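Re: the multi-chain job from yesterday

Posting the exact lines I submitted so nobody has to dig through the queue logs.
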Amino acid sequence: MRAAALAGALRGALLAGLLGLGAAQATAAPTLSLEQQARKAEVIVRATLGPPAEVRDGDVTYVAYPLTVTETIAGDPASLPRQGGAPALLFLKGLADLPDLRAGQDVIALLYSARLDSPLVGFNQGLYPVVNGSLVPGVTLAAAPATPSAPGTPATPAATPTAATSPAATTPPPATVITDPARLRAAILAAREARP
Amino acid sequence: MRAVRLAALLAALGAAALSGPAGAASVKLRPQGEALTQAVRAALAAISTPELPVTLDTSGGPLLTLGGAGPSAAPFNPDVAARLFVSGTERRIEFNPRGPLPLAEAVQDALARELGLNAWTPAAARTALSGADLNGDGRIDLADLAILMNNYGKSTTTGDLNQDRRVDDADLRLFSQQYSQR
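And the result, structure tokens for all chains:
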């Protein structure tokens, strides 16, 4: 009986492994709220990704996605690295845990302008795909203003209202999930205007 | 031959149900440099208990470095504490020297993800660590089971998950436990 149960458990576990449920990745980046991302970003654009191309810089190879910028929300897209005469997203080739990108994708991207392993604020958190005019997946906005995290302290997750951690709070205010890119733009600009 | 192996597997599973828990776990990592090696040893000490000492095995596993080099010499995103760089069959966990977390915390965070621990605690280590990742590729899968079965019944360290110098039913039970929890 025990042998049968163990064999069944082993079969189930093997199946789970075959389905790819056992993968482990080591990338560690504290979660940033949307407000924190907006305040850190040097350039924020809505853009369409072009076809990727490899770019060599000494020993380092990057995968570059040229951008057709359709809207500049903040900063100067001209300060971004360039590929084929256009501003581009450059990612270190071989880097794990990057977002799934494809040519033709419409995105709102919160970016650093320097050439890094990933230009996205929060490593890959600052990328918001737009599909058929809607944010997919929807973006959760914190109901209360986010508290900037101290150095070395993981940031408050975007989906966790700050007031929910207060002992005095009895009912945490509901978070809001938005799918309208215009509302995301407004939230980003509001967060940047509120910068200390 | 396959039928013999299957019979051995089922027999071992049955016998293993009567076996005790793991006596030790080793983690295959290759930290480079004194600071990183000390940080890794300290992290492993924090999840070790007398019942399940967790030790460092530098004979394989991912390379751990402070900063990148060569093909991974790109500057770090300032928000990343550790990144995983894969080149061919080599995996490198690279720590950001100016990252958002202190090195000790970054090591714990990255290793927890690498090893599949849901927290850096002895309890989580007991749940997740068995040394069943026999080929050190960061996952426990059929390749590891094949290695274990190839050494079943032998006096060897490969596949000897409880480190009693024998690969037997106790090791198979540990493998089954760890596989089902991944």
